[in-house]
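Why do we care about 3D structure at all? Because function follows from shape, and shape follows, mostly, from sequence. That is the central idea of this module. The next example makes it concrete: a single protein chain, its amino acid sequence, and then its structure expressed as tokens.
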Amino acid sequence: MYYEKVFRTLQKSNIRYAVAGGVALVLHGVVRFTADLDLIVDLELKNLKHFIQIMNELGYQPRNPVKAENLLDAATRDRWKREKSMEVFSFVDPAQPMTLIDVFIEEKIPFDEVMKDLVHITAKGITIPVVSLPHLKRLKKAAGRPQDLADIEAIESLEQAEDKN
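And the structure:
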């Protein structure tokens, strides 16, 4: 599993997060290529601070020339959103440039709502918290890119299959 070490470390550290994006689709059973890992991390200061510490320990660095600790400041995140139309803060492992982790800088869906409907998927002994299909569909609709629209069709197919079972 591509991000096994990340998932294992986040689980061991009790970080409050959920997998979204293409990896969430794959974990739900959709066959799809994706290179990055999209995470919804609880933006509560203590949790976010611990998450950044873990990213540092794992060797991940901000892709943009800013300090990861800037992510801790809600006003800075809001400014990034307003001035740069930024949606995610990206971490990259310089030793493996294809390993990109994108963290949402604002709650598209209230975090407690995401947590209430999480799906827990176990792989290689790791319990991975994954965004539910309805929430994933909501996130994809908000993004609205061509790949997101195709993903919505895949989600709807999964939902129909679940309804039949």
